[in-house]
C-alpha cells in the first residue's frame, strides 16, 4: 500500500511539474503582460484590499521585471518537480504562486494545482527516494564500489 501511495504522489509531482512548466513556457513565448491585470485587480471586488494595495505598490511599478520573474519561476518550479530536485521548496513556491493567482481572482485550474502542490509538500519524505538526489546517490554508490 505504501508503494502505491508513493507512486500516486510521484504521478502528482510529475503532472504538477509539467503543468506549471507549460504555464511558464506559454507566458514567455506568448507575450505575457501584467499591464491589463493591474487594472482588473484594482477594480475587482473579490480580491482583498491588502492584495490590491500589494499589487498596486509592489507589482504595478515594476511590471517589466515581474513579467520575466513569474514565467521563469514557473519554469524552474516545473523542472524541479519533474526532476525531483529541491521538490519541497518547489512545491512551497508553487503553493505561493497558486495562492497569488487565486487572490487575483483568476480561478481556473489553480485550486486543483494548489492541492497538488500541497500533496507534494506534505509527502516529500515519500518522494525522496524517487528524486534526482536519490539517483545521484545511487550512481555514486555504484561508482565507489
From TrEMBL:
Q: Which domain of life is it from?
A: Bacteria
Task: Give the organism, scientific name.
Answer: Mammaliicoccus vitulinus
Location(s), subcellular: Membrane
Name of a matching Pfam family: DoxX
Recorded hits in InterPro entries, A to Z, give: DoxX
Its transmembrane ranges are 7-25, 75-103
Q: How does it sit in the membrane?
A: Multi-pass membrane protein
- What does the UniProt keyword field contain? Membrane, Transmembrane, Transmembrane helix
Name listed for the protein in its UniProt record: DoxX family protein
Amino acid at each position: 500500500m505504501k508503494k502505491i501511495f508513493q507512486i500516486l504522489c510521484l504521478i502528482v509531482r510529475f503532472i504538477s511539474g509539467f503543468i506549471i512548466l507549460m504555464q511558464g513556457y506559454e507566458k514567455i513565448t506568448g507575450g505575457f503582460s501584467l499591464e491589463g491585470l493591474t487594472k482588473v485587480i484594482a477594480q475587482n471586488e473579490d480580491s482583498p484590499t491588502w492584495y490590491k494595495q500589494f499589487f498596486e505598490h509592489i507589482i504595478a511599478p515594476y511590471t517589466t521585471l515581474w513579467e520575466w520573474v513569474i514565467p521563469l519561476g514557473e519554469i524552474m518550479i516545473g523542472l524541479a518537480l519533474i526532476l525531483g530536485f529541491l521538490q519541497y521548496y518547489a512545491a512551497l513556491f508553487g503553493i505561493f504562486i497558486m495562492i497569488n493567482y487565486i487572490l487575483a481572482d483568476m480561478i481556473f485550474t489553480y485550486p486543483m494545482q494548489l492541492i497538488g502542490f500541497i500533496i507534494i509538500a506534505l509527502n516529500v519524505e515519500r518522494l525522496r527516494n524517487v528524486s534526482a538526489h536519490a539517483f545521484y546517490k545511487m550512481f555514486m554508490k555504484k561508482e565507489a564500489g
